[in-house]
Design goal:
With about 210 residues, the chain is α/β, with parallel strands linked by helices. The protein has one domain (about 1-205): Vaccinia Virus protein VP39 (Rossmann fold), CATH 3.40.50.150. Helices cover about 40% and strands about 20% of the residues. The protein is built from eight helices and six strands. The chain has a six-stranded parallel beta sheet.
Amino acid sequence: MTDVEHTSRWAAKASSLYDEAYAGRYRSHDEDLAGGAPYAAFVARLRSACDRFTSPIDALDLGCGTGRYFCALRGVRTLVGLDASAAMLERARHPMHEDQITIGHTTLVHGDLLDQDFGADRFDLVYSIGVLAEHTPLQPALVSQIARWLRPAGRLVFSTVHPESASVERTLKRRLGSVVAPRLPAFLRRPLRDRLHGCFATRPAARRRPPPRT
């Protein structure tokens, strides 16, 4: 397993939220999730994506956290696990179900996914569970960047949350935006809705007991 350091302002902010104490609680939460239906569904989705390839693949986990989903991967030659929290990546050195992992080689990258450049045609599979639009904005520019990283016939597997989900912190700005947006003309409504739907996580939400990345 190889480590690569690449930090940024967003990564530094995230590291302060996902600190050592949080990472410890999160690892305990990993074990709680292992037997649940949501976890099993994500594992099945990732395995199905891997099974679509007929030869060994290179994969990227955007926001890998503690490496919760490493064991779901099949036929993976190399995996890059990217996360903004060094404490979470330390747990990813020994991820859940480590004895079931069949990945050839794993590289852990400490950095900000909004400030990465892995190069064109680098990966066959990119996946991100519980991160996009929750812990970092899901923006057209990011989607275009991920598309550039993918090889022809590559696949992107990701989850996101509904903006009205109970897990989304209802800040004053978000409540006001939700009320105002429907009353605006279309050319103003679209940018505001994009902003409201772009990223949901807040400091109070990040400090609650995980489950942000289920």
